[in-house]
Structures are given as C-alpha cells and as structure tokens.
Design goal:
With 182 residues, the protein is mostly helical. It has one domain. The protein contains ten helices and two strands; from the N terminus they run H-H-H-E-H-H-E-H-H-H-H-H. Strands 1-2 form a two-stranded antiparallel ribbon. The longest helix is centred in the first third of the chain and has 20 residues. It starts with a helix and ends with a helix.
Length: 182
C-alpha cells in the first residue's frame, strides 16, 4: 500500500503542474461559478450528481445513471410562459444572467421534468417536494432541497443556492485549494 502511494506522488505532481500551466483550476472556477452559461456542458450532470451524493446521509446512496432519463431542470425556465410570475420577477437582463447558471439548475427524471416545464415556482416546488398527490416526488436530494429551503425563487434565492452548491462541490473536487496553491 505504501509503495502504491509513493508511486502516485509523481503523477499527482505532474497533474498539478499541468493543470497549473493550463490554468485549468481557474477555468473550472470561472466556468462553474462565475459564468452565466454553465448549461449545456457535458460535465454539468455529473457535477450535479456529485453534489447530490454528498448531500445524502445514506451510507450507500443510489447510483445516478447519466442517461436520457436523468435531465437537467431549469428552475427559472428558459422560456417562461406569457403572463407567468417568472416574467414579473425576472426581466430579460436578469433572466439572461441566471437562467443557465448552476444555481438555477438541478436534476430531475424525464417524466418529472416534463411535468415541471415552464410552470411557476409554486407549482414546480410541489413537484420537487412531492406535496401534490397528482405529481411524483423527485428522487434527487439536490432537487428535494429546493422544496425544503426555498419558498420563492428570486435573485436572493439564486445567490443563496449558488453559495450552498459552492460549499458542497468545491471541497469535494479540491479545486479551491489547488487554485490557491495549498
């Protein structure tokens, strides 16, 4: 075991040197936390699934398949219906800033995503939390958390969720320490 760990040290050093020279940590940080357009990235679903795994208190969390059934849900819809609360709460500029931001994205199964579509947050919240008997509860903790922690969805909520996800994801990937050279 000790030999295996010693053998990995040169690879770790090479990895950190290469990521530093390619500025990978800064690119990761920008793309995930500062960019207003993290969606549609190939790595988005795995990052959200990773956050979901670390939110659960189960010893053996359920495996999340990266298939067509696991979809990325926009809480603030990409195209809100005319006359919806979304249009009252988010002008065009605010919508463009937040709609594809990681704080506005979560995981849903295809069927639930089709139910939620462009609904107002009150209706989506019922789907996320399973409080409407005609709807199906989400199986993802990262989505059920929206029901538990948010009564409305506005810029303050988005910033709060950004901070929440940052606190979960960044330590797992050890990116923040690597960016600072720790």
């Amino acid at each position: 075991m000790l030999k295996a760990i010693k053998a990995l040290k040169p690879f770790k050093s090479l990895y950190l040197d290469n990521t530093a020279s390619y500025n990978a940590f800064n690119q990761y940080h920008y793309n995930l936390w500062e960019s207003s357009s993290v969606y549609p990235s190939k790595w988005l679903r795995p990052i959200l699934a990773l956050a979901n795994y670390f939110m659960t208190d189960e010893e053996k969390p359920h495996f999340i398949a990266m298939d067509a059934e696991t979809q990325v849900e926009h809480i603030l819809p990409q195209t809100p219906k005319r006359g919806s609360q979304w249009n009252a709460d988010f002008d065009k500029e605010k919508r463009e800033k937040w709609v594809n931001h990681i704080a506005n994205l979560t995981l849903l199964k295809r069927k639930k995503n089709a139910q939620a579509l462009n609904m107002d947050f009150d209706e989506k919240r019922k789907i996320y939390g399973g409080k409407d008997p005609s709807k199906v509860i989400s199986c993802y903790d990262i989505t059920k958390e929206l029901y538990s922690n948010y009564k409305k969805w506005d810029e303050r909520s988005l910033q709060k969720r950004h901070d929440f996800l940052y606190e979960i994801i960044t330590p797992i990937l050890h990116i923040d320490r690597a960016r600072r050279g720790i």
